[in-house]
Amino acid sequence: MLLSQSVWLSLKALVVCVALQQVQENLLLPYVMKDSLDINPVVMFFALILGATVAGVLGLFLAVPIAGVIITWLDIEAMRGKSNQDVE
């Protein structure tokens, strides 16, 4: 027997897990990474799309660090995230 409870309970659990994962990856993670990498969340999102398009799964893992290096190396202020000093 694959399911100890019911099919509906397992489907509800699957929907909740997928919803939580989507919220974490698409809403929470860009703001956490913005503070640590100093990258605008929109730039991070487009870097992930470009990385997935160009190199697939490997591109997803390498897109944000490469974007951070490029932004820092070229000193592009418009693509940086807002620092905490600007908010005060």
In percent, how much strand structure appears in the residues? under 5%
| Major sheet details | none
Spatial shape? elongated
- How many helix segments? 3
Q: Unreliable runs, pLDDT <50, ≥5 residues?
A: none
**Fraction of residues in helices?**
over 70%
Highlighted features:
88 residues; mainly alpha; 3 helices
Protein model, in words:
It is a single chain. By secondary structure, this protein is mainly α. Helix content is 78%, strand content 0%. The chain is built from 3 helices and no strands. The protein is elongated, with a radius of gyration of 18 Å.
Quick synopsis:
By secondary structure, the protein is mostly helical. The chain has three helices and no strands. The longest helix has 34 residues.
What topology emerges from the helices and strands here?
Blueprint: H1 7-37, H2 41-74, H3 84-87
